[in-house]
Amino acid sequence: MPASPSLATAPPRTTAPASPATAPPRPAGPPSPATSSVPTSSVPTSPVPTASDADLGLEARLAAVDALMTLRLEEAAVAHEVRTAHLAVDPVDLAEVITVPIAPARQPAAPAAYRTPAAALLERAHHHMRTAGWCAGALTDDDGSVCLLGALHVEAGGDQDLVVDASAILLDAIRRRFHDESVPAFNDRQRSGAVPERMLLEAARLADARGR
């Protein structure tokens, strides 16, 4: 008797062998240096720094050091002010500090109209008195003013024989107009330096005329 279709035996199921796990594809990109086929000599290298780059780097470093030193100095100044703010500072009187005499200002050079020694000395004495001032009763005063003999001594530079010669000519010029016994007496009788200055000029002309 033929078998029923429902009772027919199903053929055995075959199972395909499992395929190995497939790794995900790697993203495309530039080959690594180790596996690249490009020769090593063709790989670009970093540019060699030039002299101008080195100079620019030195200037930049110097500028940075200068800025840092300036900042530190400013901080030190502020710190010093903070530390000394509580200290009382007394005002200083310069008159008490400066005790040495101040040298008078250098006078401009006197004109040289005469070449003989006594005439040139009398001319320089006139210029000195006119610029430094006239005084009476002393060769020179605290302000640097001079009398007739004081002007001759200052301009003679220590040459006493020249002072004596010029003083004698000056007394001759004075006696032509006045009746004084000496140069100091005539000088101290004046009230200003106008007449003594004029007599020095007249004495210079007289000395030049005498060749002295």
The helix/strand order is HHHHHHH
Characterize the biggest β-sheet: none
Radius of gyration over alpha carbons?
Answer: 55 Å
Helix percent band: 40-55%
InterPro entries: DUF6197 (IPR045677)
Structural account:
Among the domains are: 57-87; 117-209, no CATH class. The protein has helices at 51-83, 94-97, 117-132, 148-156, 160-175, 183-188, 194-209. With 212 residues, the protein is mainly alpha-helical. The N and C termini lie far apart (185 Å).
Question: Could you provide a short overview of the structure?
Answer:
With 212 residues, this protein is mainly α.
Task: Please give a handful of descriptors for the protein shown.
7 helices; 47% helix
SSE arrangement:
Blueprint: H1 51-83, H2 94-97, H3 117-132, H4 148-156, H5 160-175, H6 183-188, H7 194-209
